[in-house]
Specification:
222 residues, mainly alpha, 7 helices, transmembrane, transmembrane helix, membrane
């Protein structure tokens, strides 16, 4: 857990540095206002992630160390995980962090598609459905339901995976179309930027999608 948090911390620092450098003259790529918004985004997601890591670490310590040997064995504690406020805090902060990160994807997709009504409607509908399902998960779980037996939780995971896949398909399609137009007008050497961006989006989303599918399958078999 400490190793993954260290990676998360370093990535957050690198993101802030990249945004700060991006708004410095003479080759400013983003405005100072956008830089402030992006840095605030990184700070908020890092804060939520840190809260989630800390609360989950405390709950894990209680399961395997502090409460061992008593009437409550690890299986009992895992089954009744929402009886402990700090574990609920860990899960809820992760849900909120997913909302914020998906909101950034929604904004990027809408900008790239120039706010075309069908794209905005599709991505917004899926985004709102994700928020609704996550709220439903928190409500059902608070009623002493076994977290990993909630069908709505599985629906949330599948829809989150679908949302990321939709984003990648839409953005990649848009960039490939722009690349084709640039090649026909200016030549292939001017389309290198679009090719590299597309490759990055496809690779990152594919990696996320693979791990997401593995997690969903594992979750179903639990």
């Amino acid at each position: 857990m400490a190793f993954t948090y260290g990676i998360f911390f370093l990535l957050s620092i690198e993101a802030c540095i990249a945004v700060y450098r991006g708004q410095k003259p003479p080759r400013a790529k983003i405005s100072k206002q956008h830089a402030r918004v992006l840095i605030a985004y990184v700070v908020v997601t890092f804060t939520l992630g840190s809260m989630g890591f800390a609360a989950n670490a405390r709950y894990t310590e209680d399961i395997w160390i502090n409460f061992r040997g008593g009437d409550r064995d690890p299986s009992f504690l895992i089954t009744n995980e929402f009886d402990y406020w700090y574990n609920r805090l860990a899960i809820d902060t992760n849900f909120v962090m997913v909302w914020i990160m998906n909101l950034l994807l929604l904004y990027r997709c809408c900008v790239i598609w120039n706010y075309q009504i069908l794209v905005v409607a599709l991505m917004s509908a899926v985004y709102l459905a994700i928020i609704s399902l996550s709220i439903a998960v928190m409500i059902y779980a608070s009623n002493s339901a076994v977290f990993f037996n909630l069908n709505v939780q599985l629906s949330f995971l599948v829809l989150s995976c679908t949302y990321n896949l939709l984003f990648t398909i839409l953005v990649t399609t848009r960039l490939l179309t722009a690349r084709k137009q640039i090649v026909s007008l200016l030549g292939p050497e001017h389309a290198i930027t679009y090719t590299s961006i597309t490759a990055t989006l496809v690779e990152s989303a594919a990696l996320y999608f693979i791990f997401d599918v593995i997690f969903v399958v594992t979750f179903c078999n639990t």
